[in-house]
Amino acid sequence: MSKAGDFSLKDIERRMDGAVEALKKEFGGLRTGRASIALLDPIKIDAYGSLTPINQVGTVSVPESRMLSVQVWDKNLAPAVDKAIRNSSLGLNPVVEGTLIRIPIPPLNEERRAELAKTAGTYAEQARVAVRNVRRDGMEALKRAEKDNLISEDEHKRFSDQVQKATDHNIAAIDELLKAKQEEITQV
């Protein structure tokens, strides 16, 4: 049994996993020296009256290790895609060739690498805080369930141990992701 009162171990694990997944997405948007289609994910363009992700107005690809390309489907949107990429905080300068937009990925200088590594650390800490908040919510739900006689003291202890195990697992996953991302960023 993993449900007692408003406590659900599955829900706790799902919310913790969500924090790790969100971190992976944030890391995908951090520019390293190599091209990755995830780099353009955070950029939205004004298309047809609403903000639209680039991958919904064209095909994003990586033709070579330091180059991204966007094949825009509607030629009228090419200038908007160009402008959105230029105005992003990624420091990229696209080259427009009709409906094809080439985006060279410049190598990172040492200062920018240090800044990105620090940003990655900030993202990881936010994910750790999110996991700890889910842990706290779970522990409080267990206390209430025991107080309301929905679970015994032994069940409270067993569920608490499971919540702590899930917390430790997710914090370790976050630390691993951070280590890998920082190595990727600092790699010359």
Automatic annotation (TrEMBL):
<dbReference type="GO" id="GO:0005829">
    <property type="term" value="C:cytosol"/>
</dbReference>
<keyword id="KW-0963">Cytoplasm</keyword>
<comment type="function">
    <text>Responsible for the release of ribosomes from messenger RNA at the termination of protein biosynthesis. May increase the efficiency of translation by recycling ribosomes from one round of translation to another.</text>
</comment>
<dbReference type="GO" id="GO:0043023">
    <property type="term" value="F:ribosomal large subunit binding"/>
</dbReference>
<dbReference type="Pfam" id="PF01765">
    <property type="entry name" value="RRF"/>
</dbReference>
<comment type="similarity">
    <text>Belongs to the RRF family.</text>
</comment>
<dbReference type="InterPro" id="IPR023584">
    <property type="entry name" value="Ribosome_recyc_fac_dom"/>
</dbReference>
<protein>
    <recommendedName>
        <fullName>Ribosome-recycling factor</fullName>
    </recommendedName>
</protein>
<dbReference type="GO" id="GO:0002184">
    <property type="term" value="P:cytoplasmic translational termination"/>
</dbReference>
<dbReference type="InterPro" id="IPR002661">
    <property type="entry name" value="Ribosome_recyc_fac"/>
</dbReference>
<keyword id="KW-0648">Protein biosynthesis</keyword>
<dbReference type="InterPro" id="IPR036191">
    <property type="entry name" value="RRF_sf"/>
</dbReference>
